[in-house]
């Protein structure tokens, strides 16, 4: 789930709440996002994941801010692409059909915080990613998945990656092999030129 505001808008919210203390600013942003998006009813674990993601965003933002000596014009100019992207939260709103048909599991313990914590998709291993995407790969054709990925890349601002995916997947059958060999050759060349 994406936060419906760009990183620049979140940065502006932090600057408006200029309490001086960064931990206060980060706490304010956490509360703002949770309230603005109506996430108050999430489980304790999911709320912790949301707060943790916002904390990591704040840390990265403050580090970038320090790198540019807190000069707003330089910071915005040099980080324009990064600032225009939206932050992604580790909250799964949509429930897969298989999961919704299963009966809820009763827990013997009344405590909510037990068990292994869930990882976001990008933190998962390749094996877990394959398992989680198995239904999509079975239900949709390769062309549909490639096109959806292209559109997602474009929406996130990485047009070059979208164009590269189009070249590799939708042109001649040997194009992907040529791109891969060219990339490996360039990578090997750069390794020796350093």
Explain what the structure shows.
By secondary structure, the chain is mainly alpha-helical. The chain folds into 2 domains: 1-93; 122-194, no CATH class. It has 11 helices and 2 strands; from the N terminus they run βαααααβαααααα. It has helices spanning 7-16, 22-36, 44-67, 72-78, 80-84, 97-101, 126-132, 134-139, 142-155, 159-170, 175-193; strands at 2-6, 86-88. The protein has a two-stranded antiparallel sheet. Helix 1 (7-16) packs across helix 2 (22-36), helix 2 (22-36) packs across helix 3 (44-67) and helix 9 runs antiparallel to helix 10 (159-170). It is globular. It starts with a strand and ends with a helix. Mean pLDDT is 76; it is low at 93-111.
Give a concise summary.
The protein is mainly alpha-helical. It has helices at 7-16, 22-36, 44-67, 72-78, 80-84, 97-101, 126-132, 134-139, 142-155, 159-170, 175-193, and strands at residues 2-6, 86-88.
List the helices and strands and how they pair.
Layout: E1 2-6, H1 7-16, H2 22-36, H3 44-67, H4 72-78, H5 80-84, E2 86-88, H6 97-101, H7 126-132, H8 134-139, H9 142-155, H10 159-170, H11 175-193
Antiparallel strand pairs: 1-2
Question: What is the overall shape?
Answer: globular
What's the structural domain tally? 2
Elements, N to C (H/E): EHHHHHEHHHHHH
Low-confidence stretches: 93-111
Can you count the beta strands? 2
Number of helices: 11
Give the termini distance in whole angstroms: 40 Å
Q: What amount of the residues lies in strands?
A: under 5%
Strand order of the largest sheet: 1-2
Average residue pLDDT: 76
Return Rg in Å.
21 Å
């Amino acid at each position: 789930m994406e936060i419906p505001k760009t990183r620049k808008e979140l940065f502006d919210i932090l600057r408006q709440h200029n309490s001086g203390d960064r931990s206060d600013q980060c706490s304010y942003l956490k509360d703002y996002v949770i309230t603005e998006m109506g996430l108050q009813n999430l489980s304790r674990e999911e709320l912790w994941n949301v707060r943790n993601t916002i904390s990591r965003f704040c840390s990265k933002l403050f580090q970038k801010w320090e790198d540019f000596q807190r000069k707003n014009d330089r910071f915005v100019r040099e980080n324009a692409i990064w600032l225009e992207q939206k932050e992604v939260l580790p909250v799964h709103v949509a429930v897969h059909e298989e999961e919704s048909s299963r009966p809820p599991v009763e827990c013997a313990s009344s405590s909510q915080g037990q068990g292994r914590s869930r990882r976001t998709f990008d933190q998962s291993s390749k094996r877990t990613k394959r398992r989680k995407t198995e239904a999509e790969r079975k239900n949709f054709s390769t062309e549909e998945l490639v096109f959806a990925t292209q559109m997602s890349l474009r929406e996130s601002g990485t047009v070059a990656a979208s164009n590269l995916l189009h070249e590799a997947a939708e042109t001649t059958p040997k194009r992907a092999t040529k791109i891969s060999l060219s990339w490996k050759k360039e990578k090997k060349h750069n390794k020796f030129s350093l």
